[in-house]
Amino acid sequence: MAVYTNVADDELAHFLKRYGLGKLLSFKGIAEGVENTNYVIYTETGTHILTLYEKRVRTEDLPFFLNLMEFLAQNGITCPTPIRDVDGNMLQTLAGRPAAVVTFLNGMWIRRPQVEHCTALGATLANLHLVGQKCSLHRNNTLSLSDWRSLYDAFKDEADSIKPGLRTLIEEELHFLENNWPTHLPKGIIHADLFPDNVFFIDQNISGVIDFYFSCYDTLSYDLAICLNAWCFEPDISFNVTKASALLKAYDKVRQIEPAELYSLPIMARGAALRFLLTRVYDWLNTSETAFVARKDPEEYIRKLRFHQTVDDIKAYGFDT
To answer: Can you tell me the distance from the alpha carbon of 78 to that of 81, in angstroms, rounded to the nearest whole number?
Structure first.
């Protein structure tokens, strides 16, 4: 469930007058998603998405996210485009929440990505990185390596209640990453949350990328590592090297992966696995079972992290230099 803030019909109709979208015909809440409240709105001029930003999104970051989506859309990346109101503003207030209206994208996300989907993802991610490197906008990653220890400290005394030995696993991995994390790799704008539910497809073709609310300026290959974790494991958490190979090779055809990036990718993959393990553990311990946000089992990323810990060569990901 992802409708945390209810909006009255007349309140929304009045709000939309600022956008020149015509008369409001109908609207409905979108159940998927965990961070914000989303509605599909139908007006005389077409279909759009209304997003109300909830407390988990920092208000001061919203101009970056909205301007980034506009920049990407203007430069060939298919993503939701913020609609400016009559005064040229992309951000307003509705029902006591910051709010924005963006374009609607056709397509659906793939529950069980196949090799062809991973190929399309690799090319799209590379294009996003190339366009993002031309962008002057900047936002630091607020969930980078430097933030992981404080996040862990907030729950470390309870970690073993989830799985015996989890505290030791995380402490040892943090120590390893803090001493081995690459610092001189190419950087630029990254999506930082490019899971399958944030990529829309029509047949085998990507029709759009959504949910840029973790986007930031960081290491490009870290984004690749997030995708390896999110797209290349099967439901039983076995690693599908064919999917990984397709993703990396398609990316490399559009933006050549530098040798240093390839060499460090296993470390980046470990870092990406730990980042999502940490946030899942934190949410598991701090979110009520009756809350609207569905808790995600940390076990998935425990197993993914353990796999990456066994990798010492890029060939394990199906990429032969």
So the answer is: 9
